[in-house]
TrEMBL record:
Organism: Duganella vulcania
Taxonomy of the source species: Bacteria, Pseudomonadati, Pseudomonadota, Betaproteobacteria, Burkholderiales
Signal peptide stretch: 1-22
Source organism, top-level taxon: Bacteria
Record protein name field: Peptidase
Keyword annotations: Signal
UniProt keyword annotation of Signal present: yes
Length: 229
């Protein structure tokens, strides 16, 4: 099993800057990529998403441990864990046996971003929703709203994936995600204030298993667009 995981990580890292093999990963990086390996394999083998893994040699003060960027038509899953003492703060308080589940959900979230990008619909509304022009003074609020919508979609992908792969653990993952997305100040949604979407999926029964994974998320996402602040 370990050999298979190492091989999977090696294949995923072939196009990664500065790394020749999974053997050069740190223990933390290996643990995160191992936890997310099923999602990454699905993204590359089943969806053929243009995704590469990049490991930052030194994290900056503002870096989150896991993020997704876009460059030259490809998605870049970026790990910023080296020199980042707070890399695993988001997992604080969780039982050790639950941490791989939450990491897997985070990786699925980022794959949700990549899918939107690959479909050419990044920051675009689905059919039937109008995106009105904004005055210059409202541009910042609109940019925040666009980001929040994408985060809402990606959170629903993470939950749909969890229901598909780990239905017995859905409640724990959903509760943790609601906790993470709880706004620091009451009444402020912020760029990652996705509760309008998370509240639509209190249990795995919210997702239709007859639909493809991303359509499961998209169906609820459209409902959430009507509820966002």
């Amino acid at each position: 099993m370990i050999t298979m995981i190492k091989r999977t990580l090696f294949l995923l890292l072939l196009s990664s800057a500065g790394l020749a093999s999974a053997a050069q990963l740190t223990d933390v990086e290996t643990r995160w990529l191992t936890a997310g390996s099923a999602v990454l394999a699905y993204a590359k083998q089943e969806l053929n998403l243009p995704i590469d893994i990049t490991v930052q040699p030194q994290a900056r003060a503002s870096d989150v441990p896991l993020a997704l960027g876009f460059q030259d038509g490809r998605c870049k899953l970026v790990l910023s864990m080296r020199g980042n003492p707070g890399a695993e703060d988001i997992l604080a308080g969780l039982p050790a046996e639950q941490r791989p589940l939450m990491i897997e959900a985070m990786v699925a979230h980022e794959i949700g971003h990549c899918w939107r990008y690959a479909q050419g619909v990044w920051h675009a509304l689905p059919a039937g929703f109008e995106q009105s022009a904004q005055a210059p003074a409202q541009e910042q609020a609109q940019a925040l709203r666009l980001t929040r919508r994408e985060e809402g979609f990606a959170d629903l992908v993470a939950l749909a994936w969890t229901q598909h792969r780990h239905p017995q653990d859905y409640a724990a993952v959903a509760a943790w995600m609601r906790q993470v997305r709880q706004p620091a100040t009451a009444g402020t949604a912020g760029s990652h204030g996705t509760l309008a979407w998370l509240q639509l999926a209190p249990s795995g029964a919210a997702f239709d298993p007859a639909q493809p994974l991303f359509e499961q998320a998209a169906s609820l996402w459209r409902q959430g667009l009507l509820r966002e602040e």
